[in-house]
Write a structure and sequence with these properties.
- The chain is an alpha+beta fold.
- The protein has a domain of 72 residues.
- 37% of the residues lie in helices and 23% in strands.
- The protein has 3 helices and 3 strands; from the N terminus they run βββααα.
- The protein has a 3-stranded antiparallel beta sheet, covered by helices on one side.
- The longest helix has 16 residues.
- The N and C termini lie far apart (75 Å).
Length: 105
């Protein structure tokens, strides 16, 4: 199997006093493995990933591909909708006429 076929899912990046932690799952259709990004520099851990997913690439190539996948996954924008639809027109016509009559007096 090629490392390009792996998926990074459930990416969770946290920050505490400028110390970043990234946890995620590396998955195929049949196998998943929980990954702590801090371990990604350990060659024995990279070999464990290689053996678990039966990857063809070298540990260094696996590390670079996974890092790129994490960067791509982290760049997906989250959509903040806080306060965006709080003032939609949900009033009925009678209430609106009352409001309009007050504004003309």
């Amino acid at each position: 199997m090629l490392c390009e076929n792996l998926k990074v899912v459930n990416l969770n990046i946290t920050e505490d006093n400028y110390e970043y932690k990234a946890l995620f799952r590396l998955c195929t259709e049949s196998v998943c493995m929980d990954i702590d990004l801090a371990k990604i520099t350990d060659e024995s851990f990279l070999n464990e990933i290689k053996n678990t997913f039966q990857l063809e690439e070298s540990p260094e190539e696996i590390k670079e591909i996974i890092m790129q996948k994490v960067m791509d996954a982290s760049s997906i924008e989250s959509h903040v909708s806080e306060g965006k639809s709080c003032c939609k027109e949900n009033t009925d016509e009678k209430t609106q006429r009352g409001i309009d009559s007050l504004s003309t007096s």
